[in-house]
Amino acid sequence: MSINIMDIVGRASYHCDIVFRVIDIKEQNDQKIAVLYGEDIRLIADAPIEDLIVISLPDRNKMAQEFRSKEEQSYQLFRQDVDLLKQKQEYEVTDGYSKPFNYFQMPGKVLHLDGDPAYLKKCLTLYEKIGVPVTGIHCHEKEMPIKIGQLIDYYRPDILVCTGHDAYSKAKGKKTDLNAYRHSKHFVQTVIEARKRIPHLDQLVIFAGACQSHFESIIHAGANFASSPYRVNIHALDPVYIVSKVSFTPFMERINVWDVLRNTLTGEKGLGGIETKGVLRTGMPFNREQHIDS
């Protein structure tokens, strides 16, 4: 069976454990090599054409259903967290419900840069479902360090996400070697450039990284949250859950890292970070009539 660009495939040598899209096919030492993007996992990989198996539509649907089930479970747990945060805010702002609910809230604004347009679309759908104000931009990982300064100046986000695809290659060096990773150095440089604009960790909250990324380098560059502490794969939607938690946590409260990670699909092996303040702000009064008219 021939393999074509945009085919959905698995690697026979890995028992088709991950579903990939073929995004490019190139010649290397008289051999055809496919460049693969994970369908639900933020992993980029190379594989010989003969190692690939086209996944049938029924099998794709079955695997997709399993992923959707995990995503829905994670979303419901996250939704419970957000609802509890809102109830707590209502109680405090209304002085124990003794005053009218005459207030409004401003969740943190997110600027989400993604190296994969398909993942970006999935993430934007989830942001909208949760209610997080977001601007999404498709930007290749290599271009992020060049463009990030201008984008921060223009959009002035409270939270920045820089993600896409990454992978560690044992053939290129040890896990401690930043050059052994596909795009980790680009995520590191992007964070460094972002911190030149806004140095304070609580004035701009940053998540950066993808599958198997060099977690320590990204954190030391100035990110609040990053992947991947144990160099494992992360789910496409994990960055959304992390920054949405930050977006809906009041700016006077500090976020326990475990509270952020527990409802992600990957957990602490793939994601980590440092203690960070929330960015939600509450104001009053809320003019309901003016709100309806506008």
Query: Could you tell me how far the N terminus lies from the C terminus, measured between alpha carbons in angstroms?
Result: 57 Å
Number of strands: 15
Estimate the strand proportion: 15-25%
The 3D shape can be described as globular
> How does the helix and strand content classify structurally?
alpha/beta
Percent range of helical residues: 25-40%
CATH superfamily descriptor of the largest domain: Response regulator
Q: What is the C-level CATH assignment of the largest domain?
A: Alpha Beta
Query: What is the name of the CATH architecture of the largest domain?
Result: 3-Layer(aba) Sandwich
Order of strands across the main sheet: 8-7-9-10-11-13
The stretches of 5 or more residues where confidence is low (pLDDT under 50) are none
Count of individual helical segments: 8
Radius of gyration: 21 Å
